[in-house]
Input
Amino acid sequence: MSPNRKPKDTLVHLREESVRRIVESEKAVERSFHEGRLLASLAVGLLLVGFLLIAQWRGNQTLTRELDRQSDQDLAVMIQDMTTENAGLRDEVMRLQVRIIDAERSTKDTSDVLNEAAEELHALKLTAGFEAAEGPGCRVRIEDPEHVLLAQDFVALVHELRGGGAEAIAVNGRRVTATTGFSEGDGWVFMGGTALNSGYLVEAIGDPASLDQALTMPGGLQSRFATFPGVTTEIRRAETVSVAAAVDAGMVYGRPVEGE
Output
């Protein structure tokens, strides 16, 4: 003990030295524990890798021994069987591809047939007057203040428009169909039993040039109407002509047949 150090200071120093050694011992133990866990983990990992390598080696050895036991003839049979199986699989793939192509073609053909049928049905409805129509065409305005025009003149007008390619015709806003008839009486022209007011407007849908030519050709309807007293005819081409659907007159004695 140093002659200048007091007993109390010496005790404090010894206590601090003891605490320091205890702390260092704990750190050393903790470091040894972590190093031991790391070494244990590495050992377990090496054991697993070694086990897997041994298992793979044994599997390869077993497969090699099995193949070695097979004769050349057996190996040839195995190869032939595998080749036959592969060929069968290729054939099945080709068969399925052909079925897919046939199905796509059949679907396309069915779709084309349905589209054509829908277009034909639409055209028939337009011709029959069951649907309203709109398109290019012409308008014919006829003035007949003396009421000299007869039913047969309107029939001739409709025929000439049909001959010019008219797809839909209306007279004074009423649709002309295959069953529409013209008649006359008491100085009036009747269309389907309804009198037509003087100052007739005939509208037709079709190629404007063809319709115009059908009406204005030499000896045609316009030149013939010009010979009637007081009758004037004005023909104008139009980019858009609209005609309404025909009025359903209904059946008097018949009724629709219901399907089974």
Observations:
- The longest helix spans residues 7-69.
- The two ends are 127 Å apart (CA to CA).
- Residues 1-69 form one domain.
